[in-house]
Design brief:
By secondary structure, this protein is mostly helical. It has helices at 4-30, 32-39, 43-51, 57-73, 75-94, 99-126, 133-158, 163-184, 191-203, 209-215, 217-250, 256-281, 287-308, 313-329, 331-341, 348-377, 379-399, 409-417, 424-450. The chain is built from 19 helices and no strands. The two termini are 35 Å apart. This is MFS transporter.
């Protein structure tokens, strides 16, 4: 287990992947109207851009590939090559001279994002201590929310330049990806993964991770739970991430600059809530109550926007405030934490690859459907769909919240699966962690008996 200082240092390096994930989504979103006008795109082509981007199918396919590769060959493999693929995609978008070139750039960027996310969350979790895992995941989520805030601010500044400004945004993402590649190449491998591979080599005990994942009742239970929590929320968040400026402009009559400004404020609030909310209290607060508050705020934001409309400024700003804060303490942060805790080392990243594939693929389908609903049935109907999706996520996450707070990954694996997925070293660590907690609890009881007035 790395020290707290070294784990935070590696977390910051890895978290740039999350910045580039959300940054690429909103860079495409902020210029969607401009690309549509430039190439004369149909509503189907607009939906296809969203569907094959880092927001949906592109990332889904990348995760399905990157997750198992990370489990088989190591987390470091992804960091050695992933950002090179990302740069290829952003360069294609930056210099796009046709719709096929633009679409290819979006797809390649999405593949790189999808491959990097499961590896990044897994690496962060495996290099964290028991009492700062949520904090470090929160730092990665802070980077994820900072990406859109920075890109939308730059998009607002560059808006007068038209499509050239959006090309510049993708150029900036290319530069940041290059810096990330340089930093991440210096990361060491996850010790948990190294120990697992050493155990498999010495014992000869190997199993196909996906076969095990889909044949175990416990892993299937948590797969369905996490997909339920994340997918229904992400259908809304994904549509917002790519189409919200488009919605503001077409349904609300706002200018491109006004739309980008609103989204910039929303994402600044998300970044603040992530850092001072989830990262600060995720290791200490009651997970069920914490999750419920964020999920309820998300649903309330869309209720206001849908039924109060965008004609009044108060409803727009109430929506921005409620959704912005809820996104910082909501489903994605909890998914990122729980998805790394509830599966053993041998298929920790691969399971995320499967879930991320389902979640982003469903977002891809919704990215094709949502513009059609918006244009044919109107914003109120589209908004009502959004509210229903958020309520499903709220119910699933609140009822079946897992009890993982303060426990080591080895303790959680033992509680969920027994010792069958633990190496001898992991069993010993689980024993030590449990004994330390029992001792601390015993000391606390003894102190209360000796000092009843305190």
């Amino acid at each position: 287990m790395a020290s707290e200082k070294s784990s935070l240092k590696s977390t910051v390096r890895v978290s740039i992947t999350n910045f580039l994930d959300s940054g690429s989504i909103v860079a495409g979103a902020s210029g969607l109207t401009l690309w549509t006008q430039h190439f004369g795109l149909s509503s189907f082509q607009v939906g296809l851009l969203g569907a094959l981007s880092a927001n949906a199918f592109g990332a889904a396919l990348g995760a399905l590939i990157g997750g198992p590769l990370s489990d088989k060959f190591g987390r470091k493999l992804i960091y050695t090559y992933d950002m090179l693929v990302y740069m290829l995609g952003t360069i294609l978008v930056m210099f796009a001279v046709s719709f096929p070139m633009l679409l290819t750039g979006f797809l390649i960027t999405g593949l790189a994002v999808g491959a990097g996310v499961p590896a990044s969350w897994t690496y962060i979790s495996e290099t964290s201590q028991n009492d700062n895992r949520a904090k470090n995941i929160g730092v990665s989520q802070f980077a994820w929310s900072l990406g859109p805030a920075v890109i939308f601010i730059l998009g607002t500044i560059l808006a007068p330049m038209g499509l050239l400004g959006n090309r510049i945004l993708f150029g900036l993402l290319t530069v940041i990806a290059f810096v990330a590649w340089l930093l991440q190449r210096g990361l060491g491998e996850s010790k948990a993964w190294q120990d697992r591979k050493a155990f498999e080599k010495s014992s000869g005990q190997k199993s196909h991770p996906y076969r095990t994942l889909f044949s175990n009742k416990t892993s299937l239970k948590w797969l369905f739970f996490l997909i339920g929590v994340y997918m229904f929320w992400n259908l809304v968040a994904g549509a917002m991430g790519f189409f919200m400026p488009y919605v503001y402009e077409t349904a609300g009559g706002l200018s491109n600059q006004e739309a980008n400004m609103l989204q910039a404020v929303l994402w600044i609030l998300t970044a603040v809530a992530t850092y001072f909310g989830f990262a600060k209290y995720g290791d200490r607060a009651n997970h069920r109550i914490f999750f419920f508050v964020g999920a309820a705020m998300a649903a309330a934001s869309w209720i206001i926007l849908t039924y109060a409309g965008m004609a009044q400024s108060w409803s727009l700003w109430a929506f921005v405030a409620l959704w912005g804060i809820s996104a910082g303490i909501g489903a994605q942060a909890w998914y990122a934490l729980w998805a790394t805790e509830l599966f053993p080392t041998q298929f920790r990243a691969g399971s995320q690859g499967v879930m991320f594939f389902v979640v982003r693929a469903s977002a891809g389908v919704w990215s094709i459907i949502f513009p059609a609903i918006l244009s044919s049935l109107g914003f109120t109907v589209a908004g009502t769909f959004m509210i229903g999706l958020l309520l499903v996520s709220l119910v699933i996450g609140t009822i079946w919240t897992p009890k993982t707070r303060g426990k080591s990954l080895e303790e959680i694996t033992r509680e969920q699966y027994g010792d069958k997925f633990l190496t001898d070293d992991e069993k010993s660590k689980a024993d030590r962690d449990t004994a330390a907690k029992n001792k601390a609890a015993g000391n606390s009881v003894a102190q209360q008996i000796m000092n009843p007035d305190k």
